[in-house]
Amino acid sequence: MFSAPDSYPIDLPTFHSEINLPYTLTPGRAAGTFLAEVKNRRIVASRFASGQVVAPAQDFSSTGGEEPEAFVEAPHTGVLTAFTRVDGQVIGFIRLDGCDNDFPHRILAELDDLSIGQRVEAAWDDSVEQSILAVKGFKPAPDAPLGTVKPLETMEEPLGVIPYAMKLDYEHAYGPYYGRMFDEIRENGRFMGVRSPGSDVALLPPREIDDVAHSRTGTWKACEDTGTIRGCSIINMEVYGQTRKVPYVYAEIVLDGASTRMIHVIEIDSLEEAKEKIKPGTRVRAVWTQGERKGRVSDIERFEVIEE
Amino acid sequence: MALSKVGVVATAQTEFRPAWNNAQHIDLISSVVTSVFKGSGLTIDDVDFIIDSGSDVLDGRSISNCGFLGALGAHHKEEARVEEDGLWAALYGVNKIRSGSSSVGLIVAYSKPSESNVDLYWNAQVEPFYQRPVGFGQRAANGILAQRYLAESGLSRRDLADLVAERWAAAATSGKVAIDDLPDADAVLAAEEGAAPLTELMFARPVDGAVAVLIAREDIARRVSRNPAFITGMGTSMDTHSLAAREAGRLSSAATAAATAAAMAYRNAGWASADADIAEISGSSVIGELLAIEALGLAEAGKGLSAARDGKVAINRSGGALPADPIMATGLVRLAEASRQLSQPELFGGGAPRRAIVHGAGGVAMQNNCVFTLEV
Q1: Same domain, B303 and B322
Q2: Any idea where the ChsH2 C-terminal OB-fold domain is (chain A) (predicted)?
Q3: Number of H helices, E strands in chain A
């Protein structure tokens, strides 16, 4: 028999989340030169001391690790050594004439018309620069004459960095404990936790197993929407990914009835006043968002200091 | 002092489902971490360290184990995360015990690929200048391996489909994998194209789930477990990133890294594949499984299918990775399955199996490989 978590069907849909990561990729000398040279319709390859030629160019041999002795120009013709089709696009391994390695690229033909060993030639896309897709793909060229590897006397400066972005989408499941917590926020405008084993203070967010004792948690308990700051920092610096205008206070707040800290925000007008008034021990209350609650932590717009 | 021997004391796993929509990672993890102790007499207090395995990219958060520590039972314990299949986490844990620095360890691996896009997860692993833009990734790599394998072995797509159907049927029998419609070979062939010549059902099916394995020094394992399986050999080996550079086109060496890892493990154990009774093997596609069977020495190159189906060694009696591939946990599940088959043969058709081979893999087209030998 298998183990199963304490779960039941949940009304809440999954929680959609996106991660957008900006990068500046550093291609290095070989790939940087290859990518700079495609605008001249040249395929840059690496020649190693052994006489082996590898295209597209590499800074190191992928098997032996040694560095190439020179960059050379590979021909635009070669043979197809393997192929498959993914989502309707044929992808094949190509071995350019005079080269000793295979590399993957798009094949511009129908799968059924292809055979291993057949001659192919690069099809260029003039609208693309600084990408391997400047070669749109390789098309069948049964009569293409055998190309040769040539020395590369002059070449473009290698590209230094290439802007790149990776976007990842997620649909996170809430699970039974977070599911009820967010459901209670939406339906009843309250924060529900579960009691630590053998105690009356609540863990928030709720969970099946107490982190410290590693035993089953107790019954559900509603916490107040007032609490005490137990850690805070005035944020006055703009950083990537922020959702509010600076300055504001990042605060770790223990809600009344809970034992755990929840992270939220306190808005401020004056830095000096904030330094004076907002510190560990300061009492705060939640300011709920106007309008329909959505079942999110952001249904609390912010916390505000309770003036004594 | 000789190195300590390490035994598998207990295992626990959730059902593997295409999607655990009503549970999050911590729910799955705490479920297996609490149940792995049942009947063992040990508790979380006896555990010296926890090694876990999962993928930040799949989980959608950085250093995702930080948020899972409580569920893992790792509060104020030594904890480390291995960003590889859980079988490497086990390798790490076994070495900690063998060195004498610890006596009981908990190995956990988890996966929720249903929450993200598995194709993007694989794309993130390929080289970004030459490979990613042209659409080369895990599926294309397996398609190309399949084209070569079929040409060189003389097998047909129908042969592959028969094996896939058998694996799904085995998983259905085991009762540990959620299967709505059990595909027969015709259904496998009729499924959508995954990467020609493979259909989608010829690829390992990503599933959600978690697995926990409790390991301990020999004397403790013998005290708390009736018939523990001992880990007697381990090996791991990584191939070059470029699939095209991996001994292109030569089947006998298409899975060189797996063969090297197996040779290391067999050398430790002092026996070889022919002496095994059981093998639990990972494969990112049906071709991946066949290549692994051959690389582990269970069949000659191109002859993996006959060994897979009716060889002397019981291969993937659990169904293996094709019906249930909890990415990053798949290899650790193989360890759990093989150890149960050795320790409790009465639950698996009887007999007196003594030796098992366990295989895990990671990376595009199984670039990285890990092999364990188990004995009772």
Answers
A1: yes
A2: 220-288
A3: 3, 19
